[in-house]
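Database export, one record per block. Field names are fixed; values are copied verbatim from the stored entry.
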Amino acid sequence: MAFSLRDKLGSGDGSGGRALRVLPAVLLAIGALILVFATSYTVETGNVAVKQTLGTVDLEEVGPGFHMRLPFVTSVREFSAKENAFDLTDLTPKAADNLSLRELDVTIFYSAAASRIADLSVKYAATEERGPGGFFYPAYGVVWREGRGAVYEVVAKVDSLQLHKQRDSLQADVQTLLQQRLDAKDPGAFSVQRVVVRALNTDPSIEASIQLAVQNQKKLEAKKIEVEIAAKEAEIEVARAQGIAKANQIINASLTAEYLQHEINLALSEFAKNGGQTVVIPANMQGFQLLLNQNRLHKEPPASN
């Protein structure tokens, strides 16, 4: 006895017939969804897409939005045209004094020109890196290598004892040098926005040298202050001596023979008022004409009654 598909699915209440009618619609919807996913794609804002059809890369970038493609024939890769960042960690470059750093961590922020990403995807296909969002970082390996080289080259120009004092200039120099290196390879394709030194740890022996240098610098500054104080004190003493010498010069210039004669006469007059005194004139005063009253000097005091 033969049974039809209708009999196998059930009969009587019509449920089997309804299932048969719904099944084609479901299959059609599934097929439509597969076709939509196979023939369309979207590109996020800030990104661009690069299409490849049968092994040939389309060098015209596709901008953000909804787009169509040939199913199973055209593949699409989405690249970031925004600012991208990558870390260089645990670097141990040598400084100008041939001493190596213990640890240097640097973060580099860069972007690729949206109009050059298709060319970069062909030229540096092996260096692309897929990000956490599923899209690719263009020429990631190239920028990473050039960034690492720029860090080592810049550090090699600075003494290890000075690196911790020159973090800002170190970041600026790495950014400038990295931009120059990338422009030499692909002019106008890359832009290095900034470089951040996150950690800079020197060798323990260098740390000890830095501490010793700081201590010696403090001692030197203290000695300089002591020298400056001594110099100021010496200037004060010189100024005081010069003032005394100048005062003496003024006094000596004013002590003329006439003035001295006048002063001596006043002194002798005072002696005479005291009833007679003995006055000794030094030998070096011989040149003065002393107006003395000899009788007054040698007059006997009056007898008392």
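Remark 1: The beta strands are 40-43, 47-53, 56-57, 65-68, 74-80, 84-91, 101-112, 129-130, 136-137, 190-202.
Remark 2: The domain at 84-202 is CATH 3.30.479.30 (Tetrahydropterin Synthase; Chain A).
End of record.
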